[in-house]
TrEMBL record:
Record's keyword annotation contains Transmembrane helix: yes
Keyword tags: Lyase, Membrane, Menaquinone biosynthesis, Transmembrane, Transmembrane helix
Site positions per UniProt: Important for catalysis: 89, 250
Protein's GO biological process: menaquinone biosynthetic process
Entry protein name: 1,4-dihydroxy-2-naphthoyl-CoA synthase
Binding-site list for substrate: 33, 77-81, 89, 121-125, 153, 250, 265
Family: Belongs to the enoyl-CoA hydratase/isomerase family. MenB subfamily.
Recorded superkingdom: Bacteria
CDD domains the UniProt entry points to: crotonase-like
EC number: 4.1.3.36
Length: 277
């Protein structure tokens, strides 16, 4: 059965929908293979923040509009090269930006599961976007690759180091040094994507995965995501993981007793609480 999506807010460069516990963000610039300009990124960031704040939402699907008029599909072809200037990508306000890095950090740290649904090209900064998502489901027409050293850019952050964690050092170096294109089948083989389905089934598969996740324990999933990140993300990974520990502690009777005692200017009843082994 087709999912019934409700528009959350109308944007220029993206579409933003929700259905039940699922939010769907669609980059909507098919004539540019869904390349992002700063405005696109501002809109993506706002939608992601909304999804993070919405307590009903557990899963975000990130995808690209298509096919384009020439029949081709794209998830995202990276930064919009027509607005690349000195020091970053420049649109309306004339300020050079690499603000996609903010979106990468938000996807990485938000305590909801972000699934990339990739039909067609995931290239350059668009490839990094799918890499950073928790899961990737690819259509059988998916095309994956990096272009930086071919056109004067590189992503030395998650786009290279985390990629190497996914596919191994040799393969990650091959992807960046040679700038080749890889099919969805090759991406599956190297552990870059979770599943490949016919393009017509891509969204339905994403919704099915999302609905499975939505049956699981939100707190367990939240802690798992931060635990997966913590191993790799240094101090900010530890911050996320321990932030969850603090949140869970705040929910205990023990923390509530100590907090109430301080407010009520009395001695806390520490004896009520065990020193567990
Ligand atoms: C994606 C392609 C392989 C598709 O090839 P195809 O032959 O199918 O299509 P066309 O090449 O004819 O493209 C159709 C149409 O789309 C326009 N277009 C495609 N990609 C872009 C783009 N990235 N920016 C702007 N426009 C794009 C293309 O010009 C055509 O328009 P017409 O009007 O001429 O019809 C192929 O298109 C391709 O390889 N595209 C370029 C990919 C690319 O160079 N991406 C940028 C890489 S750098 C990057 O993304 C990046 C961004 C950041 O913000 C960073 C931040 C921090 C660190 C690093 C960053 C970073 O590396």
């Amino acid at each position: 059965m087709a999912t019934s999506w409700k528009t959350v807010k109308k944007y220029t460069d993206i579409q933003y929908h929700k259905s039940g516990g699922i939010a769907r963000i669609t980059i909507n610039r098919p004539e540019k293979r869904n390349a992002f300009r700063p405005q696109t990124v501002v809109e993506m960031h706002e939608a992601l923040l909304d999804a993070r704040e919405d307590q009903k939402i557990g899963v975000v699907l990130l995808t690209g509009a298509g096919p384009a008029k020439d029949g081709k599909y794209a998830f995202c072809a990276g930064g919009d090269q027509s607005v690349r200037g000195h020091g970053g990508y420049i649109d309306g306000d004339g300020v050079p930006r690499l603000n996609i890095l903010d979106v990468q950090k938000l996807i990485r740290s938000m305590p909801k599961i972000v699934i990339a649904l990739v039909a067609g090209y995931a290239i350059g900064g668009g490839h990094v976007l799918h890499v950073i998502c928790d899961l990737t489901i690819a259509a059988d027409n998916g095309v994956f690759g990096q272009v930086g050293p071919k056109m004067g850019s590189f992503d030395g952050g998650f786009g290279s180091s985390y990629l190497a964690r996914l596919v191994g050092q040799k393969k990650a170096r091959e992807i960046w040094y040679l700038c080749r294109h890889y099919s969805a089948a090759e991406a599956l083989e190297m552990g870059l994507v979770n599943k490949v389905v016919p393009v017509a089934q891509l969204e339905a598969e994403g919704v099915a995965w999302a609905n499975d996740i939505l049956q699981r324990s939100p707190l367990a999933i939240r802690c798992l995501k931060s635990a997966f990140n913590a191993e790799l993300d240094g101090q900010s990974g530890i911050q996320e993981l321990s932030g969850n520990a603090t949140m869970l502690y705040y929910m205990t009777e023990e923390a509530k007793e100590f907090s109430s005692a301080q407010r009520e200017k009395r001695k806390p009843n520490a004896q009520k609480f065990p020193w567990l082994p």
